Amino acid sequence: MIKKLFSYICILSAILVGGMLSSCNKDELISSDLAPQIIIDNETGIFEVKVGEELTIEPIYKNVSGAEYTWRVDKVVASTDPIFTATWNEPGQHYIDLTVTTEAGSANEEMRVDVIDLKLPTISLPFTGNEISLKSGTDYMLTPEIANADDEDSKLTIEWLVDGKPYSTERTFHFTSDIIGDYVVTIKTANEDGTDERQFTIHLLDTLPFTLEFPSQSYFNTSTTRYTFAGRTVMLRPIITGLEATNYEWSVNGSPVECDTEIFAFTPDSPGEYVINLTVNGLAGTSVIVKCVDGSEESRYRKPSGSNSARSDKVYEWVPAPGQFIGDNQTGGMTGDETTHEAAITWAEQRLDKYQYVSLGGFGGYIIVGFDHSIENREISYDFSIQGNAFLNVSTGDGGSNEPGIVYVSQDVNGNGLPDDEWYELRGSETGKAETLTDYAVTYYRPSAPKMNVQWVDCLGQIGSIDYLAAFHRQDYYYPAWIKEDSYTLRGTRLKDRTVLNSSTGMWDNNLFEWGYSDNMGGDTLSSDNAGGGEGQRNGFLIKNAMYCNGEHINLKYIDFIKVQTGVNSKAGWLGEVSTEVFGFEDLNISGK
Asked: Which of 579, 588, 578 is CA-nearest to residue 527?
């Protein structure tokens, strides 16, 4: 009985299975005549993988008996297996095409792979080399830039060691000691993508070494020789670091002179070469050569004719501070080929010829231009103009964007056609104010990796950064590619910034200065339409406002060269650094504007 029942069940099961198979064939769900199907477990079809990380794509297939598989990467056959694996060593985008073919037909799926950089915790420190000197007892704080430190998923860890012993796990390194000697400091960073390590030595000294030097006239003009006419004063002011100067001893050609101040006003009475020596606090000194040329202001004057252009015809130097428009080949107009100074100034000349902006970056960034003639000092009206892109808030008539550029002028005293002579700052509304610093300097440091902030240290010991703004500018570096050194120092007059967050509009405002600065809606604004086309916002300037470094007036009958330098060290929140822009320079004697 049991055996018969079991037989009936087997027979019934066979009938049911056969019926089901017949039904399935009827509905064409299982059939050798059906085309293959590909199911990718990815809604967007976009895969993201890091450099060096293996990617595996394992689709779900249907109806693939006897199928052939073809994977193409960027149109090139890469695999014939059902499962695809690959690794890329460079960031970028790749397009993957999968085709599955059987006797019944074929199926196709297209995908994209975004290969992204590893988010390495690269360390960048605000000094060059691997040594720093501090005075014993100094309360020293160091906050390094660390790439990807703000990525919440990176799981960053930081470890500081001093002489091999654990010291801190905080981002900021805080060190102080009265014990003179050398301390080896190590910083280690780690996240899920990798590690980095930097080591440097702190030399803790009783007395810091000092430097005493006379500066060159510009970054690319390394000569310190000074030029003047007979009877014209040269103001000599040294750069002193690491020493509180209390006593100055000056001499000319070995003979002491009656001057015991930081600035020596030297006025040669006849052509020749003079060696000026300075000793500070009775310690080792330094010297500078002053050449009094055999010529006169009148003999060097290049009178314009009808064939001369009102606009500048040459850029001699373009040394911007780091900034968001430096190296920008997406919105900033650069090509990426500006890796030498020659290429950079050629690019800047072409931009100015088209009335397009050239950015000077953060504080101290500058540009030097010249003309095919001398610009005369008319005394009674503006002599030349500089075009910028400043503007005020339309609704309120204030605030807006004012990024003041300090303006300097020079004559070709030595007659060599180069801007290697004395520079004279033009007086402005902030001249002589207590908050205006006349010999301010900032040193900028090249970042250790792409897309990092640029750190700086100023002459007051303050530390800051030019922030990398990934939302606006994505070039690898804001540090100029044609500056070959890993750090460079820019020096000049610094105005107290007027950058504020407007509580009414929620926007950042750079408020205007009264007069005397380019890219600024001051009272010397000649036109305010900054829409481009050659008639943008312009400021007028008077040569008669030229002055020595100590603020004394100098009477120049004409000028040959103009320099503009970003005059504030400031950031406007998410808008980034305040940077002067220039669009053009024009001799108003010729243009008549």
From this structure: 588
Domain boundary among 174, 205, 236: 205
Residues with pLDDT less than 70, the chain: 1-32, 395, 529-535
Q: Is residue 3 assigned to a domain?
A: no
Do the beta carbons of residue 471 and residue 375 sit within 8 Å?
A: no
The pLDDT score that the predictor gives to residue 532 is 41
Residue 172 in domain: yes
- Tell me which residue has tokens 């060593």: 89
Task: Output the pLDDT for position 9.
Answer: 33
Question: What residues are paired with 84 via a beta bridge?
Answer: 57
Name residue 364's amino acid: G
Q: Which helix (H) or strand (E) segment is 298 a member of?
A: helix 297-300
The dihedrals phi and psi of 574, each to the nearest 5 degrees, come to: -70, -10
Spatial distance between the Cα atoms of 38 and 34, rounded to a whole number of angstroms: 13
**Integer-rounded Cα radius of gyration of the chain:** 34
Tell me if 57 sits within 8 A of 83, measured CB to CB: yes
**Domain identity same for 349 and 470:** yes
Task: Report the pLDDT value the prediction gives residue 6, as an integer from 0 to 100.
Answer: 35
- In this structure, is residue 404 part of a structural domain? yes
**What torsion, rounded to 10 degrees, do the Cα atoms 306, 311, 313, 317 define?**
150
Tokens of 448: 């250790």
Residue whose tokens read 């008319």: 378
Check residue 152 and give its pLDDT: 73
Please report whether residue 13 resides in a domain: no
- Report the b/e string of 483-514 with b at 16+ CB within 10 A: beeebbbbbbbbbebbbeeeeeeeebbbbbbe
Residue 7 pLDDT = 37
Q: Are 580 and 508 in contact (CB under 8 A)?
A: no
Helix (H, G, I), strand (E, B) or coil at 461: coil
What is the per-residue pLDDT for 8?
Answer: 36
* pLDDT, position 214: 96
What domain range includes position 541? 297-591
Per-residue pLDDT, 332? 86
Alpha carbons within 13 A on the beta-carbon side of 322: 31
Same domain? For 145 and 273 the reply is no
* Reported pTM: 0.86
Looking at the structure, tell me whether residues 557 and 462 fall in a common domain.
yes
Q: Report the DSSP beta bridge partners of residue 527.
A: 538
- List the one residue out of 555, 300, 552, 560 whose CA is nearest residue 410: 560
Q: Which of 292, 309, 327 is the last residue before a domain boundary?
A: 292
Tell me the CA distances in angstroms from 558 to 43, 98, 228, 364, 375, one per residue in order: 70, 73, 15, 25, 5
Cα–Cα distance for residue pair 248/278, rounded to 1 Å: 7
Residue 574 CB coordination number (10 Å): 10
- Which tokens is 320 given? 């911007």
Closest CA to 232 of 553, 514, 540: 553
What letter would DSSP give residue 35? P
